Amino acid sequence: MSKELPKPDLVPLKFRSIKSEEEQLRRADSFYRDLDLRRTVRDFTDRDVPFELVEKAILAAGTAPSGAHMQPWRFVVVRDPEIKTKIREAAEKEEYESYHGRMPDRWLKRLAPLGTDENKPFLEIAPYLIVVFRITSVDEGEGQEPTYYSQESVGIAVGMLLAALHNAGLATLTHTPSPMKFLQEILGRPKNEVPYVLIPVGYPAENAKVPNLKRKPLDEIMEIL
Questions:
Q1: Would you kindly state where each structural domain of the chain is located, as residue ranges?
Q2: Alpha-carbon distance 46 to 39, whole Å?
Q3: 33-46 pLDDT, tens digit each
Q4: pTM above 0.90, yes or no
Q5: How many angstroms separate the Cα of 200 from the Cα of each of 44, 136, 205?
């Protein structure tokens, strides 16, 4: 006989109702216009950031939906200068290999307009580095169990984290050196936590510049059937 499954624990929905369509549209437009200002920043200042802002943004990211509600994410916040230096050295080593042999010419051509290279000073300058790990399995006393849809779940949480940090008036960058195993080693994470993305967080430098990029218009990213 199969083991009896737990019964659902359901509670009343707490839903914030917006009374008019006009207010809904105003809020939707305001949210879009604010996020449209979000840019990937590579020039940071070392100006201190209130840690509470980072905490609140991570709490917001933690509200993301996840497969079977397993919440397969770990947000490791790095502010120790020595650890940041180790991360920069390891990341630049991997990035050098990527820019000088691993990446095909087509990839390098795509990156050229962004002005990126193997040098990553922002990994030391930004006050905080948030390293997001994807938890691949759990053991709750009944042996190893995979986390379901963990890749998708963590991706959603990271998107919400970026939006929350931007909403708090902070600049970010999504850095994905490949391979990223060095982050697992430097930060002493267990084998079931796989590095997903490294996000420097802080304020942009006074003279910060970003590539002159254009986002795709609505008719290129949406289809109506």
A1: 39-206
A2: 18
A3: 999 999 999 999 99
A4: yes
A5: 9, 24, 13
